[in-house]
Design brief:
By secondary structure, the protein is an alpha/beta fold. It folds into 3 domains: 2-84 and 264-283, Rossmann fold, CATH 3.40.50; 93-170, NadA-like (Rossmann fold), CATH 3.40.50; 178-252, 3-Layer(aba) Sandwich (Rossmann fold), CATH 3.40.50.10800. It has helices at 2-15, 28-31, 40-49, 61-70, 93-102, 116-119, 131-137, 149-158, 179-188, 202-205, 214-223, 235-244, 267-275, 286-302, and strands at 18-23, 36-38, 54-58, 75-78, 107-111, 124-126, 142-146, 163-166, 193-196, 210-211, 228-232, 249-252, 280-281. It has a 5-stranded mixed beta sheet, sandwiched between helices. The protein has a 4-stranded parallel beta sheet with strand order 6-5-7-8, sandwiched between helices. The protein is globular and about 55 Å long. The structure holds iron/sulfur cluster. Iron/sulfur cluster is lined by residues 60, 85-87, 113, 171-174, 234, 259, 261-262. The site of iron/sulfur cluster has 13 residues, from loops.
């Protein structure tokens, strides 16, 4: 059954000249039919260079929006219109305008996990992989880091000379990991290295042997000489690493590390999108695209 749907997807994808992007947190049946698999910003960059005129994003809304910002001439479809990201959507542009009015001279740094309308008010974007190097290159001493206070605090710790403000909120999945859970899993697997995403709370990050983006965690685990790892990010990464490195052992930090929004897309949704019966085309006016792409261009310039 799954195989039949996958074959129909591959046939339609070719017939309709569609590039399928799948974020690494998607289910395996979707990863198998994707043209590209990876982190959100890497996917948007790959979609830009792909020859296809239509792009189908299997991920959450801000990822499809970022894809549209980098490739405004392409038709970009979000596979499941219900797939949002609570962290990316937690602020409105007015919140940033207010902060700027009250803090003249401050830079607003936006994690790439933000909505396009929020990006229109920000000075520069960062990814979890580039956050330290980009913030380090900013002239401004006063910074507001949005929307993830945990990533913001991680950056702030590395730049004590800067005044980095954050706002409460963050990723409800990574942010929910508790120190006690980490200690218990570490005790169970004393020889394992603990690899964690910086969206976790600082007390959890402090216990890590490696802190990095999803692709950073995967690269580290694959290249390491070590044989056992506790994975402190979405549960699908543990399974993917185990498949990629059968000679190593990977343990999920918690069975609750599942992002429901990332899992909102099903294989049938992908099929329906290709049939023209589902998904949502991302539509943005020129003014929004022009303003929202600026902080991304600034990130690329500094990076
Ligand atoms: S894992 Fe967290 S940051 Fe990523 S999409 Fe889900 S809620 Fe958003």
């Amino acid at each position: 059954m799954i195989r039949d749907i996958q074959e129909e997807i591959l046939r339609l994808k070719k017939e309709k000249d569609v590039c399928i992007l799948a974020h690494s947190y998607q289910t395996c049946d979707i990863l198998e039919i994707a043209d590209f698999v990876g982190d959100s910003f890497a996917l948007s960059k790959l979609a830009k260079t792909a020859p296809n005129k239509t792009v189908l994003m299997c991920g959450v809304r801000f990822m499809a929006e970022t894809c549209k910002l980098l490739s405004p001439e392409k038709k970009v479809i979000l596979s499941s219109p219900h797939a949002g990201c609570p962290m990316a959507e937690q602020f409105e542009p007015e919140d940033i305008e207010k902060f700027k009015a009250e803090n003249p001279g401050s830079a607003v740094v936006a994690y790439i996990n933000t909505t396009a309308k929020l990006k229109t008010k920000c000075d520069v974007c960062v990814t979890s992989a580039s956050a330290l190097s980009i913030v380090g290159k900013l002239e401004e001493k006063d910074i507001l880091f949005i929307p993830d206070p945990n990533l913001g605090n991680y950056v702030a710790k590395n730049f004590p000379e800067k005044n980095i403000k954050v706002i409460n909120g963050g990723c409800p999945i990574h942010g929910a990991i508790k120190v006690d859970e980490v200690k218990a899993v570490k005790e169970e697997h004393p020889d394992a290295l603990f690899l964690v995403h910086p969206e976790c709370v600082p007390e959890v990050v402090e216990l890590a042997d490696y802190v990095g983006s999803t692709s950073g965690i995967m690269k580290y685990a694959k290249e390491s000489q070590h044989k056992e790892f506790i994975i402190g990010t979405e549960i699908s990464i543990t399974a993917q690493l185990q498949m990629a490195c059968p000679d190593k052992k990977f343990y999920s930090l918690s069975k609750d590390l599942i992002c429901p929004d990332m899992k909102a897309t099903t294989l049938v949704d992908v099929l329906n999108c290709l049939k023209g019966e589902g998904g949502e085309e991302i539509v943005m006016d020129e003014e929004t695209i022009k303003a929202a792409v600026k902080p991304i261009e600034k990130m690329l310039e500094l990076g």
